Amino acid sequence: MNKSAFVTLFVVLLFTACSKEDPIAPENEAPVVKSEAAYSVLLDEDIAYADGLSHDQSSTIPFPISMYLDVYHPDNNSDNRPVFMFIHGGGFKGGIKHKPEIVEMANYYASRGWVFISIDYRTTEELGNIQGKTREEVIAYYKGVAPPEWIEHAMLGAETVKQFQQATAMYLAQRDAKAALRWIVANANTYNINRDFITVGGASAGAISTVALGISNPEDFRDEITVSDDPTLSTTNLNETYDVRSMVYFWGSNIKLDVFEAIYNLDRYDPSDPELFLGHGTATDPVTPYEEALELQGIYNDLGIHNKLVTLLQPNGDPAGHGAWDAIVDGKGLSELTFEFLAERKKLNVE
After folding, report:
1. Rounded to whole angstroms, how far apart are CA atoms 108 and 326?
2. Pairing mode, if any, of strands 307-312 and 275-281?
3. In the chain, where are the structural domains located?
4. Pick from 113, 126, 247, 332: CA 20 to 30 A from residue 169's CA?
């Protein structure tokens, strides 16, 4: 995959596409949110949103496990709330939905009137042991877990078993993230969520899944495997639809969409894709370099979709790198930067 971009060092740059400048016009009344913390935060923890097939180190056939999410919601009487679903990072090898920095962001948003939902999903930890297996045996081992064509592609690019399983887990993570969002839509009335104000965000691997979630079609990462091969699909609210209006990306990339296009020959970018906030630092990062953000912004600019790239700095003013949760730009942290972007672009009523 050839990527061409340049890196601007040691300064803060705010890039904004200009072809689609008007904020999103909501179809119904915009929610009211607060500029400062105004509500106590209620937490509904470890809610099962779907099942998925899994392997452990001794299994020979996949078995179902449940995936969970945490719902942070304000203790108020509003019946019109925006929602922000967040996907944790971890290189598709692990990670937790209750990472302290995510919990801090969840409380920031929920205390201001949002519903903030943090999800977990399957990673390489659910892919078992394939040491010594032939190509055909690996494909059979993962039947119902990942599509054969995805597995074949992962085999081509991987030099180790760990790399192969990481590439395979990218598919599982996406399938689960979509299931989580369908759960949110199915349960919107429980939390007084306005379905017209859906934001999805994530960090690192979570940002990679965020971009693929917002830009891919509803059937992508869903219909490549049938219910007969994966009966757990019946637990994933398949009849629900969603419309992601905004995405928040922290130090990620669009690599999953590149892989999807390479496998299926389908380019999913189009002018109706969700608006995008990108936070990425210029410090050396061999996993998700700054050029990834520039490439994605270039695609958005070419399509005329509103986006904003904030070049992240450490609190001392030096360039930030991967995992820059403590980044400060113009005196503002990540929660405040993203809140302002989303409130403006969604035309939320901020009090």
Report:
1. 14
2. parallel
3. 14-350
4. 247
pLDDT in tens, the chain (351 residues): 333 332 222 222 222 233 344 444 445 699 999 999 999 999 999 999 999 999 999 999 999 999 999 999 999 999 999 999 999 999 999 999 999 999 999 999 999 999 999 999 999 999 999 999 999 999 999 999 999 999 999 999 899 999 999 999 999 999 999 999 999 999 999 999 999 999 999 999 999 999 999 999 999 999 999 999 999 999 999 999 999 999 999 999 999 999 999 999 999 999 999 999 999 999 988 889 999 999 999 999 999 999 999 999 999 999 999 999 999 999 999 999 999 999 999 999 999
Exposed (0-12), middle (13-18) or buried (19+): which is 17, by Cβ within 10 Å?
buried
Look at residues 40, 325, 320 and name the one whose alpha carbon lies nearest to residue 207.
325
What kind of architecture, by CATH, is found in domain 14-350? 3-Layer(aba) Sandwich (3.40)
Q: Which amino acid is at 336?
A: E
pTM for the full model? 0.91
CA–CA distance, 273 with 269 (Å, rounded to integer): 7
Question: What number of other Cβ atoms are within 10 A of residue 120's Cβ?
Answer: 22
3-state secondary structure of 47: strand
